[in-house]
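Recap from last week: sequence in, structure out.
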Amino acid sequence: MNHFEAIEKLLTRDGWKPVRTCGNLRQYKKAGNPASLVLPVPEDAPLPEALVRHLENVTGLALTV
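Predicted structure tokens:
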């Protein structure tokens, strides 16, 4: 399982649902939360650390895997 798949699994467990896909980008929304998340779907590279920290700030989850 690559970094993206692990983070996507944690997000969906917390109630974030994919709402749109455009190329290699996926947008997620959660009921009751005004924010939306856009994640790049990388081939084999891990997500950038700055993006993971941003996702942690927005979601309140510990996403470091």
